[in-house]
Fold each of these.
Amino acid sequence: MQLLKGQFVWMKTRNRDVQLLTSSGDEVAIVIHSEGIKVTVVPMRREISLFADVNSLIEMYFRLCIIKPHISNVSTPKAGLLGGIAAVLARVPARVYTLRGLRLETSRGFKRRLLWCVEWLACQCAHKVICVSPSLQQTVIAMRLTSASKTIVLGAGSSNGVNVEQFYATPERLERARKLRFELSIAVKAPVVGFVGRFTKDKGIEELVNAFDLLRTKIPTAILLLLGDFEKGDSVNPETQTRIKSGDGIVWAGFVDSPANHYHVFDVFALPTYREGFPNVPLEAAAAGKPVIATNATGARDAVLDGVTGLLVPVGDVPALADALIRILDSSELAQQLGNAGREWVTKEFKPERIWSALDNLYSTLLEEQLQKRRRRLLEFKSVFDFVVALVALIVLLPVLAVVAILVRWNLGAPIFFSQERPGLLGKPFKMFKFRSMRDARSSNGNLLSDSERLTSFGRWLRSTSLDELPELWNVLKGEMSLIGPRPLLIEYLDLYSSIQARRHEVKPGITGWAQVNGRNAISWAEKFNLDVWYIDHQSGWLDLKILALTVLKVVRRDGVNAQGSATVEKFSGSVLEPSEEAIQSND
């Protein structure tokens, strides 16, 4: 949770509704209290457990189906895999996997192959893989876990940036550091090598202890101050454990919640790690103005500018590590130069807001890209579906079309079809065909009579059954219309639309649509436009099938054929107010 501290609150200021799915733990209560977000606990075991893992996957899937997030961001190997699969199954539009390191780098045999498969699958489930450091990105690509185009590093890297002000050398912190030296029984002028982290082989704690013993042959008064604790997994050898606990020049302070004051006890900070994603502690030490020695391992080499903010040594090279420590401790001028440069570098590049802003931009860009891809796939499928259904319908309904054509000719005369230019996709005009439903009756001066006077009982029947719409299947077959979409209105309305109303032309017009199954001609223009825009923002294959099913019911019931008190639809005058976002969203 500490790797995400502050991020949730910041995202909320950008109108992001953040919800957290996490396994149970004491930190959940802290997040709820400090970040003020909704947290859902999904039990998950750290070790492999097939039955428990399947249960975790199922629960995550159902949680995501309830939340319906636009974006998911998962991390750690197991949560990345299970959360990634759950997000795919729940059809989350934009999926992110944040890689904070690769355990497989220091694994061997079957375990390494298994971890590779886990990471590969997690990457496959994501649309974008955030690597927390440039060297981690290079390693991920070299290991063929995913493609280069799929990976990204936010800013200069790191998981969440560093709150640099928390580590600056203020008078209060320097005084507290002086007191800490006394409490830890460290002499005032004793040179101190510092380490913060887990006591494991991967962190290089064995090499650090051995290098310190070499250092003591040159600088006998030196002290190694260790903050952290032993772990069962990847545990260090018994000799190193005994040496740490012996107290001979080594001060083991245990786990510390906030080491901000302890950094000012250090004269140099060391992290001889074997692998990292992007370690925070070297950045914290640099923010405190301390020179840093790290290995050239993945992730670690991104946390130090070699020769500028600190020194890099080969992984596992004890003599090189000892020499680097001696070099800095022997030169207060070099130590100060590296420490000052480190503080300036971290302050400039690693403030959390830089990472959060880059992440927020990624979310926006990725979501838009994925929605566009989804729309394109939907349109491609819809075009094929429209063509096949229209072709089959024209063949099957050919006898019905012939009978209706004869009835129109018998009752209304020629022509049988009514054709008129209507605006299609992006407002491009096309000629729409329908069966004629009105007489060509005119007044003595040659003007057409009103719609109500020209609409016969046969014409009313034709409209109420929607049989007059069947020739539009030809428009669908030609690709000018779709089965589902906003109804094509008159060309003369184009100049009357507001910017939101004009969005109805972002898709092909349809024979039926969301407005048709929610009132048809019996609702106001404002309601129609709201429904049209809502459909554009929410279109999907399932929604189209729902509209087709509801259309059949509407046709059978003959609902909403005419506007109340009118034989036909009242013309749009352009006086309708622009639909509000609230009105559009209310159709969800």
Note: DSSP finds 20 helices and 16 strands in the chain.
Amino acid sequence: MSVTVEELLKLPSLRRAKVLGGHRGLSKIVSSISVLESTDPGVLVDEVFPQGEFFGSEIVITGFLNSTHNIPLQLANIRRLAEGGEVGLIIFYVGVYLPSVDQQLIDLANELDFVLISMPEGEATLRYGEVINDVMDCIFRDRAQNSSIVLDILARVSALPKHLQTVNTAMKMLSDRISASVLLCDQAFNILNLVAWPRGFESDIICGFKALSEYPGPGGSEPCAFVPDSRLYRLPIGADGGQRMELLLIKAGMPIDAATLGQVLDATRVCINIWGRKHGEIAIHELVRAILQDEPMKMRRLAEIFHVDVAAIHEMWIIQSGAEEAKARFKQALPALRECFAGFSGSLIMDVYGGRLLLFMSTPLSQQEAERMTEAVMETVTPGLPDAALCRCSGLMNTADVRAAYLSCKENLADVMKIYPARRAYTLGDLDFAHGCRSLIQSGEAALAECLRPLLPVQKDNEELDLAETLAVFLLDGESSVTMTSELLYLHKNTVKYRIRRISNLLGYKPDKMPEMLELYKACAVKRLLLDE
């Protein structure tokens, strides 16, 4: 995905080129190519990269034709190019006009991870155009084959120095990628970020935009009144901080298709969430979104940004509550939860997503550790949320498993809580079991009657004892323990023992005997679901 400097060196026009320095920068992504023959680095500061802003990800061609013997100027230009986000420099006509590449340039390139490339020495017939054509053709072919704008922008911005990782940088990359002017506005259509395409038309766009009396409807487009042969697109954005913004695109010539608009919107939202916040605040929410939406490529790229080992994550814990204030409570509990997990040595991600508190982690070292962590989570989260429930989904091998488990929890947790009302912590197996019970109920009267058949002997008993209820508590809640069942039913242990003996006599087998217990267990669960409706 996206063209790197190393891949460019395989092109016909660059196969004989030699990398002199900055080898660690060979993996940097190249978005374009340009030619530079300036002798004054001040020109780069004032005109090409004003106010330290980013306009790069380009690879630059030069022959230092106006400074062939001025090493300090050559060094100053390389430093400024690197600061502006350019990825490397291809030097032509070494041994022809430029006597040699000074070692100081190589040392600086190594220091800055700025790739310094020399074309074959002593060849006066080399042409800039051959390299330019090869490089741009390679970039265009890559974009056609790999259409993920989101991954491209993420890869390029995350590879930049911290001070260049901004929303404005991302908007410039986005503008270059789709060849359109990009305006990011607040809800009142006040311009927050503007990148004109082509560059230099900012003032014209500002004047024309401010003169507009109305805008396209949300998600719509219309001819742009102030840019000839172009359309104005409006894409509302809801960022995770709660703020609403408007993304407007001005595209001349060919219109932007719906798929590209969707990618542009997603890329902008992701960049706002990650790089549009205050220093130190990380939008881990985007990583969680990528995991749950089963987007492995995007997930890996975000994991690199956040330094998260997603390969080690095999568990997802979901905590949810029906209370209106649950989402706010979950967010408030995050700092305390992080303290609870301070001693956990594995990978850990926490976030509130879709009104649920989610924890992604590597598998605890032991069942005892898992139980301790579950108890800590519930003690931290449940005060004020008596209906809060935790579902532990283990053995997840990939994002598809994670998404399936999340959807299963959304669909089946309510039924799980009906089947096991005495519990507040559940497993993925409980979800699967509840789903099977619900499917059986929906499969028809004949299948339902067959499922409930094991309970008939107990239900026909004439004694004034709720044997069916005792059986359900014994199997579903009491873990086949007389002690636990007596505590849950507020009965003496001897009373429970008597009822279990009576149930055994009616059934012809002990209720905890395998394999008969399997069908009996399911029958009790299905009956609970039916009684709750």
Note: The chain is about 45% helix and 15% strand.
Amino acid sequence: MQKITKVGAGTLFGSMVFLFFLVVFQNIMEIPAWLAVAGRMHPMFLHFPIVLLLLSFFTVWIPNGKSAADQWLNLLRLSAALSASITAIMGMLLSFEDGRSGETLELHKWGGVIVAVLGYLFYAYSPQLSRYILFTRSFTVIATAAIIFTGHWGADLTHGSDYVLAPINGNQQHIVPPDQAIIFADVIQPILEKKCAGCHGESSTKGKLKLSDLKSVLAGGKSGALFIPGNPDTSLLIHRIHLPLEDKKRMPPASKPQLTETEAAVLYDWIKSGAAAEVKLFSLPATDSFRILATAYLTPGGENTAAAEPVYSFEAADEKKIIAVNNNYRVVVPLGKNSPALVANVYGRNVYTSKSLEELLPLKEQIVELNLARMPVKDDDMKVIQQMPNLRRLNLNYTDITDNGIALLSNVKSLREVALSGTATTANALEKILPLPDLSSIYIWDTKIDSTALQRLRTKFPKLVIESGFVDNGAEIMALSAPVIKPAAGIFEKDIQAEIKHPFKGVEIRYTTDGSEPDSVNSPVYAAPFAITKNTVVKARAFKPGWYGSNAAQSSFIHRSMKPDSVILITPTDAKYKPTSEKALTDGEIGSFDNVANGDWYGYQKDDAEYYMLFNKPAAVKSVTVIAAKNIGRYLFPPEVVEVWGGADQKNLKLLGTIEPKPAQKGELSEHLQLQVAFPSTEVQCLKIIAKHLRTIPAWHGGKGQAGWIFVSEVVLD
């Protein structure tokens, strides 16, 4: 017994020394992986010291004469003190690795240290304490209180600040009527508080992200901005909540209550609609998808009263069939957790063929949503879509479909929503599909259907929502949508005319051509189309009295005077981000952020991006522009440096020019980077372009210490 006690006492003293070492140097320490594993055992181990300490405290409240039992009581106190010290050490290690911060974490951390110290004192000075029974019992009361408070703070960290009282407070959430609801305070914030506050609330700010108020939500966290208004598909928030459950970056983690299908949809549509915050929900147009979804969410019988998810009569698809159709250009995912319904998204305009659609037919029974927006879809492709008996939502925005193809949709009896914006559809074609029994809404922005025909259709089909744009009747105060710049951003060889439009009457459009942000006072007013003759970044905003100014629309125009005769990739791309042909590097198509694996991007992390561009005859070149991606939430960083070499052949090259792009900063939004290297006009037959990827991601980012990705879409020669 004495030998065990002696070894235990020495171990206890050593653990206390190590604990104080961690406390003193916690702000500058980085721990190895094996210690991180020990830290993660903290939640499992912490019950031992609680039980042992309370048992040892209890012994001083019962009569006890001198006996052989004193040795066992001494061993109990030693075990309690040692387990408290080890648990405190584990907790300190976990705090280094977990990435959390906040007042509650600090209180829990210091509470754990204090409990460990009190346990050590109770063991080390038990002979002296036994002489003063009143003082000793007071000591145990104080120590017990420290255990209770420390455990309470730990529960707040793990489960959220209202975890203990949740059973009696759970039904007290105040549901605001939709017509009175403020968008962020009454729709978005309750979702964040319910599903995210456990890790990102007032009590804990994991990843330096706090979601307890609007200012903090807009500020983002360690990995940058949470979302890009109007662009949910490239927003970090949406990306994280749709990661697989087993992914460690999934939010909420698999161990926490998950967002429901409706809650996730509310967040997605909120960002898609522009992420308006401090305005009323009903200030949005009546046909706005976020307004419709949020109204249902706030209405009794909706999400807040546990309404049932849609019930489908068909069986779930074989998982192997789903895996077989998924690739870089086509993504099929379940509509919701445990739902047999599937959503199919098709990407990559350059690689789309009718076969891309036909290959979805093994899942034709389960597909309820199909997104073909901006694909070169032809009328004959509707014959494939006709074979999907449960298709409810179909997005054909800005496709090549004509009236003949639209007429074929009259055979898809399950359709509820069809998007035809930007197509050549006419009123005559619409009349063939509007009688569909379940059809409830159709979107025809930017089509050739005039107001007279539109009014006739609305009169004939009064129960349908036919959305053609918003009409300003002066009754609502809200933010204007951004203007539309035509042509869209791109690469041009001959001078072009830029035109800026807005669907609302009486709107004043202010714009800039130097990349600066336009304002309502100093920026020029748009009056007529203007010429683009060189590399230009056009930004435009809409203003109108009584309305909030719009977000800025942006289009980047890049001049190209030549194309190489051939391109050679010196370094291979990552296998997941490899275009189908080297020609994609000079095809004049700038990659989209909707899906970075769509064939328009060259992705590198292990190697720098290096290319040869060869000419059959000497060509005079004066600049090279590399179009790259910046999306810090997805680890896409600007290159550290871009170099351009030129000469008669690959063995005789000299450095023509170099630039060092501005490093990415915390909180920056996603954007296409135009990295232009200019130099005196030089006659060459071979160019070598090198874009060096970021070697080490900075400490403010969640991926600190790793290598950054570099994504290149296009190389433009002038």
Note: The radius of gyration is 32 Å.
Amino acid sequence: MLNGMVVAGTATYSSEGERFDGLKQVNFVYGSNGSGKTTISRALASPPAHPSCRFEWRGGQNLEPLVYNSDFTAGNFAEATTPGIFTLGQDSVEARERIAELKTDIDAMKTAISRLQFTRSGEDNNGGKIGDRKSLRQAFEETCWAFKVTHDEHFVDAFEGVRSNKVKFCDRILAENEKNTETLHPIETLKERAATVFDKSAETIASLPSIEFVDLITVESAPVLGAKIVGSTDIDIGGLIERLGASDWVKKGLDYLPSEDGPCPFCQQDVPPGLVAELNAYFDDTYMAQIAEIDRLIVRYRDTTFAVTARLDELLEHGCTFLDAGLLRTEIERLAERLRSNSLLLEGKRAEPSAPVSLESVVKITGAIAAMIERANEKIAAHNAMVKNLDAERTRLKSQIWNSLVHEGSTSIALYLQQKNDLDAAVSGLDNGIARKSQQLREARNELADLESQITSVEPTVTKINDTLASFGFTNFRLATVLGDEGLYRCVRDDGSDVGRTLSEGEKGFVTFLYFYSSIRGSTTQTGMNRDRLIVLDDPVSSFDSDVLFVVSAMIRSLIDEACAGNGQVKQVVVLTHNIYFHKEVSFDHKRARDAKQTFWVVRKIDGVSTIKGFDRNPIRSSYELLWDEVRSSTPNMATIPNTLRRILENYFTIFGGVDRSEIVELFDDDEKLICASLFSWINAGSHSIMDDLSVATDEGLAARYLKVFEKIFTKTNHEAHYRMMFDRSG
């Protein structure tokens, strides 16, 4: 059965759509012309043509939709002939009996399958045993998660990978329950071991890189630093320069001497001939080579100092726990000071090459630093050797922790597994039952289709439609099968000629409805006439005369009764109309209202967009029913209640029943007769005059007394059933 639908993105419906929820066996939809009713019927007739609409079938059981609307009428009178409707013929009594048996069996099988599916999955595929199993699992996940919350602080590492997911944590508990064979230890013992084994410092650590100080030490011991670098003594002036110790001064002054014929920049006398040449010869290649060596040592010492300092800074930033950072920083500062001092000495040597220099050795400082690095690496090696054993210890500890949790929750785990096994068995049994019943259903349907194809005929439908037409005075045409093709109909006159386009709208509408009504019990093919169906009727009485309207309404009510009973092919009915009288004619049934087997809807078009609204009770009611609303009210309107009572009594007794009010008064005894008479006087006075004086005396107590007499009028006239029906009516 159709449980609900969303009409969206088609015709005058918005992309979000309008929704029908909680549809029942009978569903009435009222709306004016152009409000969007036919769009609903078209969507039901052809869901694939309306992909933006959605349909929800209860229990997954789709009904075959048969839709009567303007498209059906146009489609079945657009051609000269109409497809015949096959129904069961008279060829085999035994076959017909067997078909009836099969239909009963098929209905029983479908009911059984629906019950099994409901027991398995519930109404929405989330209930039943499947839902019980899901709820059981969710409850067990919460139980397992409680273990995690309790022990998470101590066993973070053991829970790695499942700490943020209840489902995974629960799966891990179940997996450990199956395979964990570790020795069981007290939980407190495991906590103590975890504090050590899971300590982050127990991870393997890379060794510290060594730092090379060789270049510094090499520069310090370079012979050229202690040498007295002077020019060549073989030059005549060389002896003088050496005796004066002026080699460095002469070298600097040489840069200021002019050419041979210029004045001396110091004494402003002419430079003696050959002096510049002799001075240049004094500073020979040996001298220049030694100066170049000093330059190279300076660059080498500077670059090595920069590299060593950078490596030492990195070592401090490394933060190795096995290094004494304070002691290391002290040695680094000593080394930096020593390097700065030596750099100044080197620069002095470059400025005065003839003066020997001796650099302060860094051997002790660098040796201390190297020893600290070596000791740290020894500790790191020992630590890493320990860590290699810890890997196995951690694995074992994790397994022991999980085993402890399994032991702690053993009762809950055992109960869960037992209940889950029971539900698994139940679901498996239901699946097997559904499969077995489904196979039986397929076999029964195949047999039914085979029997139908053997004994079906279109003639019974022709006969039935013609009889109905004749009984309502449609005698100037009838249906006949097409000669040479017994599977088609045509409309003909009594002489057998085609009616052509001479049928009135009323005649065309009536024969089309009869054709549709016959198709409910049959099929345009030789099989499928016994399928369960959803009947949709969109304004079926638009062009009918009043006498035909009554019979069509009666036929529709029979379909509604069949849907409510639930024992025929018609399982659900949807009636859409703009005709208020027809709506009242087919919708009112006091028993259906009590059984809650019907729903009411109103379709409106607002600003060009169709909207759908559901109602708890029939929103389309007669004036007579509206009068009873005030009678049923717990606080009747004092100004209008007299007129309301008068109109009810006049309509029911005087107009429809032909009973005079004096006859009604005579039915009462003594005092009640006076009360009844006064009631008629009161309601006439209250409804035909302003009652300025009487309004003062018309209080709730007086109204209550007269309402009681109003009820007794129906009792005394033997119309109490009508009073009860109208007074108790809720829809």
Note: The chain has five domains: 1-63+552-560+572-620, 64-86+458-531, 130-204+388-422, 214-381, 623-728.
